[in-house]
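Readers outside the structure-tokenisation community will struggle with the description of the input data as it stands. For illustration, here is how one protein appears when written out as sequence plus structure tokens:
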Amino acid sequence: MKIGVCGIACETCPRMVRGLCPNGEPGCRPKENPFCAVASCAFHKGVRLCFDCADFPCETTKSGPIAFGYCQYISGKA
């Protein structure tokens, strides 16, 4: 199972399922990506997953495929 930088399984990502993933089959990885603010942010902060970042959840997280409220809940910052 591939896990995207946002933390969800690529196989269940709405973008991947619809064939709209800007990274294609490899899925989202931390790298400079003009189509994915989440991947670019993780790259610049040097983390593999958003959940590893001390700032999680953040404004960038709001653009990702996981509901921001859920991100707040799992981070304990709700």
Observations:
- The chain has a mean pLDDT of 86.
- The first helix runs from residue 14 to 17.
- The CA atoms of residues 15 and 55 lie 24 Å apart.
- The chain has three helices and no strands.
